[in-house]
Amino acid sequence: MDFQQQAVAAREAARTLGTLTRARKDAALHAMADALADAEVELLAANAGDVARAREAGTEEAIVDRLALTSARIAGMVQGLRDLAALPDPVGDVVRGWKLPNGVSVTQVRVPFGVVGIIYEARPNVTADAAGICLKSGNAALLRGSSSALGSNQVTVAALRRGLESVGIAPDAVQLVIGGREVTGDMMRARGLVDVLIPRGGAGLIRAVVDGSTVPVIETGTGNCHIYVDEAADLDQAIGILLNAKTQRPSVCNAAETLLVHRAVADAFLPRALDVLAGAGVTVHGDAAVVAYSDAVVPAGPDEFEGEYLDLDLAARVVDDLGEALDHIRRHGTGHSETIITTSKAAAKRFTDDVDAAAVLVNASSRFVDGGEFGFGAEIGISTQKLHARGPMGLAEMTSSKYLVEGDGQVRA
Amino acid sequence: MDFQQQAVAAREAARTLGTLTRARKDAALHAMADALADAEVELLAANAGDVARAREAGTEEAIVDRLALTSARIAGMVQGLRDLAALPDPVGDVVRGWKLPNGVSVTQVRVPFGVVGIIYEARPNVTADAAGICLKSGNAALLRGSSSALGSNQVTVAALRRGLESVGIAPDAVQLVIGGREVTGDMMRARGLVDVLIPRGGAGLIRAVVDGSTVPVIETGTGNCHIYVDEAADLDQAIGILLNAKTQRPSVCNAAETLLVHRAVADAFLPRALDVLAGAGVTVHGDAAVVAYSDAVVPAGPDEFEGEYLDLDLAARVVDDLGEALDHIRRHGTGHSETIITTSKAAAKRFTDDVDAAAVLVNASSRFVDGGEFGFGAEIGISTQKLHARGPMGLAEMTSSKYLVEGDGQVRA
Q1: Gap between the Cα atoms of A16 and B35, Å rounded
Q2: DSSP secondary-structure letter at A101?
Q3: Phi and psi for A374 in degrees, rounded to 5?
Q4: What number is the average pLDDT over the span A85-91?
Q5: What is the DSSP code (8-state) at residue B299?
Q6: Residues A40-66: pLDDT tens digits?
Q7: How far apart, in Å, are the Cα atoms of A387 and each of A53, B111, B210, B228, B395?
Q8: Is B339 part of any domain?
């Protein structure tokens, strides 16, 4: 099947998916989980092949680690599908409703997008995760995984499709999109057949999808997340939040990447902070003012305040005041999660008003900006764009809406 | 100023706009209205020039009519700005909020997009209308009007900017984007500087913007709107709704373009309907079954069921059952507004479940699918896409959101 045929088959499957009851979708999720669990041996074998090929090709070990599956990781994928079954169904939820003066009733209800394309990199667990989220939200999924995980993805998708068939749902609701670079191009230009594209991966992948697509894209983004320690900060809180936001899981997008310290508290805060960070194995890349506090601080290069380390590294700078911190964040931020530590209501208000990001935090760790922490139960990614969804995206964010307009013969005057 | 400089200036203006109180924005809208009213003579003169140039260039009269301003039309533009001042401010509205188990509070609030680009065709009234909607929703507006309306647009924008300045708001909140085709290209690729693009105009314009943009686009679309008269229809209601949806204002996107009639009621319905339509000056383009009812029916050509007439023309077809009507709508519909006339709850449910459109109507005229009729007070367009907003877009749809996450030192375990 070429991509066009796959997309047409997905649309046809989506037509039914959109009207399934929650009970049928939950039964399908459990059947998908069962089939995936049953395929464990086959999946581990296919994955071992993928891993061997990646090592032969000289892939770096960090990426091989993302690619590798274990029994525990597969159990996680299976449990993820079962957890989705326990969540409320977003489809059919009434967003709002009212009556027109002439008695016509207007009701805005959530409906699935239809066909969702996911373009992602090496992690094969995304395959089950994305398929499950799409199914629960009533969407057909076209999964464009990495060629490096092809064997694992094929076994996973085959199992998920067996699960769907076993409960009488068209297996084309979940399809793997295979082929060269030109297939990704076909997918990105399939406006009218694919309703939404969600890239999941590094900045390069996301940029390529955003630039090349005519299909609407939801950008799940990179996070150059800042912590600004205000002159009115509780410094104990600042130490705790900084350490947590930087080191609790440095490889994720909501981890802190840049520290900004108000000059008035630099003497009191930075020596303590640098000590604690060094103790946690964090390398600090500082401007001249920060370097002055410790020999362990590496002088920050010219581009050091851009982008993400995604590792135990932190850029740091002393600022003259809140205004300078806001300007810095506006220039270098990626619109993900930005934090102020302050006891001043006025400073907190100015910061939350001015900062243009998916999440703005006051005296809390940016690691809370996450679908799981927010209580969404499932998360397809964290949107850093402003259209449709911004911040953690759960099941509701995987839906569109439709107006139902009901009358008894009313016409417009 | 080149486009890049304009966009940077708009971003800077947007930073302030996003934090203005409603009172200041309403004062600005009244000041813009006053300045536009004061510029009436100048605007009529500039518009007369635009109209003369359009006639010289051989522009068809329907387009010249859209271009032409009168004192009454200018008064409408002025009143439109004042009406916006009377509407609630969407910015700062709490969408939802909750507490995490550890006491951290999460609040999702509406915030402006930032910089909105509007690309539109000949109607110069869109200039004031779009500028006002953007201002009320806290967004800076980059207005890319048609070169045919350049004189009118320049006078309008200059007046609106004088209004902004008179109340101390940066005039770069409203800017006209001038230049050749390459400037439109710059605007469509200004991702990061422009937050959203909204094309307003014909299908060709919208397609070009969708295809050429890396900036997220909200598609305000064409409407090939169907009316399906079910076997269980109240035929008096069907006649009234058909006549209203087709003839009350045939040039707009929510007018009916195609009639589908269940075979079981064709004998009872079509002779009456064709009579009433003929009496209202409507030319019916029918399939063979419809042609059989009247000599006045023109045989429908092969592409007759695609696209919009936007005039006193209607395509018509007899279908065997509801399923065939649904298939027809799925194949030919543009996802705008689709109507069923029926007294059967089961038929209504099947229709509203299956039809994939911004609005699905039961026993009511599709002319109600409109921001004004819905009570939104203002409308930037009717979205036929599924991302962000679907259906009539009021002020709330001109906003994004931001999560405020507030704690007292909480960190993630």
Answers
A1: 55
A2: T
A3: -70, -10
A4: 97
A5: E
A6: 999 999 999 999 999 999 998 888 988
A7: 39, 12, 15, 34, 14
A8: yes
Residue with tokens 């108000």: A262
Domain count for chain B, please give it. 2
- Extract the tokens encoding B381: 């367009």
Considering the domain boundaries, does residue A381 fall inside one?
no
B264 with B132, same domain: the answer is no
How many whole angstroms separate alpha carbon A25 and alpha carbon A169? 9
Is A387–B196 a contact, with Cβ atoms under 8 angstroms apart? yes
Smallest Cβ–Cβ distance between B404 and the set A18, A191, A360 belongs to: A360
Phi, psi of A338 (to 5 degrees): -125, 140
The string of pLDDT tens digits covering residues B269-287 is: 999 999 999 999 999 999 9
Nearest to B364 among A104, A196, A248 (CB): A104
DSSP string, A122-176: S-THHHHHHHHHHHHTT-EEEEE--GGGHHHHHHHHHHHHHHHHHTT--GGGEEE
Q: Is residue A348 part of a domain?
A: yes
Which residue type is seen at B58?
G
B113 chain-A contacts, CB cut-off 8 A: 386-387
Closest chain A C-alpha to B158 CA, distance in angstroms: 28
Structure tokens belonging to residue A310: 């995604």
CA distance A405 to B372: 15
Encode pLDDT of B237-268 as tens digits: 999 999 999 999 998 899 999 999 999 999 99
User: Is residue A200 domain-shared with residue A234, that is, in the same domain?
Assistant: no
| Tokens coding B47 | 């518009």
Domain with B90 in it: 3-220+380-406
B239 by DSSP, 3-state: which? helix
Compute the average pLDDT of residues A284-298. 96
Q: Is B342 exposed, middle or buried (0-12, 13-18, 19+ CB in 10 A)?
A: buried
What CATH number is attached to the domain comprising A398? 3.40.605.10
Q: At B122, is the pLDDT very low, low, confident or very high (cuts 50, 70, 90)?
A: confident
Neighbouring residues of B105: CB distance < 8 A, sequence distance ≥ 6 = B97, B98, B99, B404, B405, B406, B407
Residue B301: which pLDDT band, with cuts at 50, 70 and 90?
A: confident
Are the beta carbons of A234 and A213 closer than 8 angstroms?
Answer: no
The kind and range of the H/E element at A259 are strand A256-262
pLDDT of residue A176: 97
Identify all chain B residues contacting A8, using CB atoms and an 8 Å cutoff.
Answer: none
Backbone phi, psi, residue A85, to 5°: -65, -25
- CATH number of the domain within which A264 lies: 3.40.309.10
Cβ atoms A125, A69 nearer than 8 A: yes
Q: Could you tell me the CA-to-CA distances from B77 to A62, B40, B63, B255, B375 in Å, in that order? A: 60, 11, 19, 24, 19
Q: Strand B391-393 to strand B298-299: parallel, antiparallel, or no bridges (unpaired)?
A: unpaired
Do the chains contact at B363 and A406, CB–CB below 8 Å?
yes
* A232, A147: one domain: no
State the average pLDDT for chain A: 95
Q: For the whole prediction, is pTM greater than 0.90?
A: yes
Which carries the bigger pLDDT value, residue A251 or residue B52?
B52
Residue of A nearest to B190 (CA): A211
Contact A402/B408, CB-based, under 8 Å? no
**Bridging pattern class, strands B313-319 and B283-286:** parallel
Q: Are residues A206 and A288 in the same domain?
A: no
Query: Which one of B387, B390, B401, B408 makes the best mutation probe of the A interface by having the most chain A beta carbons within 10 Å?
Result: B387
- Give domain status of residue A204, yes or no: yes
Residue with more model confidence, A219 or A71:
A71
Q: Which amino acid is at B383?
A: S
β-pairing, B313-319 with B298-299?
Answer: unpaired
Would you place residue A118 in the very low, low, confident or very high pLDDT band (cuts 50, 70, 90)?
very high
Longest dimension (CA), chain B: 80
